[in-house]
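Exercise 7.
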Amino acid sequence: MMSLESYLLVGAALFSLGLIGALSHRNLIALLIGVELMMNAASLNLMAFNRFVVTDPTVGQIFVLIIIGLAAAEVAIFLSIILRIYRAY
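Solution. The predicted structure, written as tokens, is:
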């Protein structure tokens, strides 16, 4: 069984990889992938704290569903902006 520290370590590694990917690349798709990695790391940490600290499991699950919905909306808006820029050129 994994402990809270191991979940947080994986989440920190994912967040740092996403931050490096978002800051180092000039490609818009790589920036989007970096932001998605950071949001997934936040979701992982939230569920880890929910499992080990909070007694009601539905609280963390609702927040993670909101984060997933936010990520889907972000992808849709970001891709529409990319397509609009592509059509302009």
